[in-house]
Give the backbone structure.
Amino acid sequence: MEPIKEFALTYLGRAVLGVAIWIIGRKLIGLVLTLLERRLAKVHIDESLRTFLGTMAQVALQVLLVITVAATFGIEITTFAAIVGAASLAVGLAFQGSLANFAGGVLILLLKPFKVGDYIEAAGYSGTVREIQVFHTVLQTPDNQKVIIPNSDLSNASAINYSAYDTRRATVKVPISFDSDFKRAKEVVRQVAENHPLILQEPAPAVVMGELGDHGPVLYARVWAQRSDYWSMYFDFLEQVKDALEEADIEIPYNQLDVHVKTQA
């Protein structure tokens, strides 16, 4: 009975110690995560990166706590590490795509090609970035649809960030009939650009002949606007150009078919 008693006391003590370490460890983890969250908030780190770092710290601390408790019960750390390593290899082979998305999420959060609130075009979609999660990024399209894109696609392909700079340039094509006064049309479009309240005058608007179309020359009006005013400026500028050309009796060509009938005498 003496060996049994000694065995029971030994493992009962380990069990009590393990439970105590688990309870205290959970409380310490909560305290550390709270302090980490406050610290990250003070240094003004991006919200997406702050959430990601908090999650990673929580996982790492919990794994460390489990290893500590296992060691308390007499489990060899080397054996535990070997088991974890084998399990990690199996999980890695089974979830290669998820790991690629995870790595892509880390790159996006660290390199910051875009952030929450930016309007981007990537992977065949365009919209406003609403969430950057560990495995995928969520976009909100202009027609209010939710698009979920794997982070591996975003980190390994080209993307356009329309919100990266404060200003944007628009190139508006204005076709002119061959029968119209080209120089007069060019001057009319320039005046509209210079008088438009949303078009920036620095860089100065430029109106040039961009090409010769089937029905006449095509003017290219290159104008700049604040990013927030871009689409309002674009649509309003088109309307004002049309009205100004009509007032100046300058014809905007359109497709038409002329039929000539020949009669035999």
Summary: The first strand starts at residue 119 and ends at 122. The beta strands are 119-122, 125-132, 136-140, 146-150, 159-161, 167-175, 206-212, 217-226. The first helix runs from residue 2 to 42.
